[in-house]
Amino acid sequence: MTRAWILPVLLVLGGTVMATVLTSEGSLGTAVVILLAFVLLAGVNSPLIFPRSIGAQEAQRRSAADGRPVVFWRPGCTYCLRLRVRLGRSARQLHWVDIWRDPAGAAAVRAANDGNETVPTVVVAGRPYVNPDPEWVREQLSPPA
Asked: Of the four listed, 40, 63, 129, 137, which is most buried by Cβ atoms within 10 Å?
């Protein structure tokens, strides 16, 4: 199992244990609500909510060809999730690199952030921006007027 799935699996297991205890105590309704909440949290923290990640080298090659930004992220990052949700459908136009799956991506983030793996790091035209405003990122997708 990769690191990206550890948190979602732990959330589902924790929710299952809590729901089992609540069911044995006779609180079936509460158990269902708790289990659904934990499953929802697991889904939000899983790689499933993000567009398919590619390697850093491939993302940089594609970005050079089409001019779209590269987003370095990792599962479980609240700020990455905020960026993804606020971008909406526009997020699919970006090149996403999961730094936990791609060592070259993690190295690129460390190089841009004084040795820290601070995400989201968005690279636009070769320049990194750490945790930028989602509206600004959306503007970078629009061709210059």
From this structure: 137
Instruction: Give per-residue pLDDT as tens, 29-69.
Output: 999 999 999 998 888 777 777 778 899 999 999 999 998 99
Count the neighbouring beta carbons within 10 Å of the beta carbon of residue 44: 17
Question: CA–CA separation, 73 vs 83, rounded Å?
Answer: 10
Q: What are the DSSP calls for 102-137, one per residue?
A: -HHHHHHHHHHTTT---S-EEEETTEEEES--HHHH
**What is the 3-state secondary structure of 42-111?**
HHHCCHHHCCCCCCHHHHHHHHHHHCCCEEEECCCCHHHHHHHHHHHHHHHHCEEEECCCCHHHHHHHHH
Give the SS3 label for residue 2: coil
* Beta sheet of 121-124, edge-to-edge order: 95-98, 70-73, 121-124, 127-130
pLDDT greater at residue 4 or residue 35: 35
